[in-house]
Amino acid sequence: MQQNKVVVNKNEVFKLFIPEQDIKTRISELAVELNRDFRDRVPIFIGILNGSFIFMSDLIREITIDCEIDFFKLSSYGDAKISSGNVTMLKDLNCEVEDRDIIIVEDVIDSGLSIAYIRNIIMQQSPRSFNVVTLLYKKEAAKINFPLNYVGFEIPTKFVIGYGLDYAQKWRNLKSIYVLDPSNDGTASTTGED
Ligand code: IMP
Ligand code: MG
Which are the catalytic amino acids? Predict the structure, then answer.
């Protein structure tokens, strides 16, 4: 049975936003596009830890072409409600990027700072191509100066949890995505690791 709401504490109630089944359906659609667009290639899917681990594992099992995977681990938010503007690398890649087709796998693009930082690092290593697949995209908040070709859901600038996304490191294990109920305080934060 699917929960309709998650009570984080008495002031912060999250309500069901994107049900498990809708996530699954959308991931299958994204995979069809990726399988088609990279059919003659062997792309490297690079997940951004921690948030993307569930999305990555579901997406990758819908990929039918040859591919490799690797992970970056970034830290950016600290305890602040808004991104600190400082992105630091906690785990680098183990693969060679040069002349490869790179597909970054993100849980959510919010300010766009993390993805800009990642893109910089990757572009310095001369990939054959650079693409991003993000499950969620807070379009109004994000400042991105390159195309996003694979977006699961465009969402409003609101705080969400579940399906890998945390609130103070918890709630990543929820099967669906939940949004902070606007009738409650709308200024939750994420902490520490992405
Ligand atoms: P950005 O650098 O502001 O684009 O944020 C990137 C990272 O912040 C994401 O990959 C998430 O890990 C985290 N983040 C952004 N928005 C949310 C949210 O609504 N819930 C949980 N984590 C978030
Ligand atoms: Mg993330």
Answer: 110
pLDDT reported for residue 87: 84
11 by DSSP, 3-state: which?
A: coil
Say if domain 20-156 classifies as CATH 3.90.1170.10: no
Nearest protein CA to atom 10 of ligand 1, as residue:
108
Tokens of 106: 């993100």
Q: What share of the chain is helix, strand, coil (3-state, %, to 5)?
A: 20, 35, 45
Domain ranges of the chain: 20-156
* Residue 191 tokens, joined: 């902490």
pTM (2 decimals)?
0.91
Nearest-angstrom CA–CA distance, 13 and 61: 32
Evaluate: CB of 133 within 6 angstroms of ligand 1.
no
Eight-class DSSP state of 167: B
Q: Beta strands 160-161 and 192-193: pairing type? A: unpaired
Give the distance, in angstroms, between the CA of residue 65 and the centroid of all CA atoms in the same chain: 22
Tokens, residue 102:
């790179």
pLDDT for the residue 20: 97
Q: Which two tokens stand for residue 181?
A: 């109920």
| Amino acid (1-letter code) at residue 37 | D
Query: Mean pLDDT of residues grouped by 10 in the chain (194 residues)?
Result: 86 95 98 97 97 97 98 72 71 91 97 93 96 97 92 96 94 96 58 57
Half-sphere exposure of 121 (CA within 13 A, CB side): 19
CA of 11 to the centre of ligand 2 (A): 25
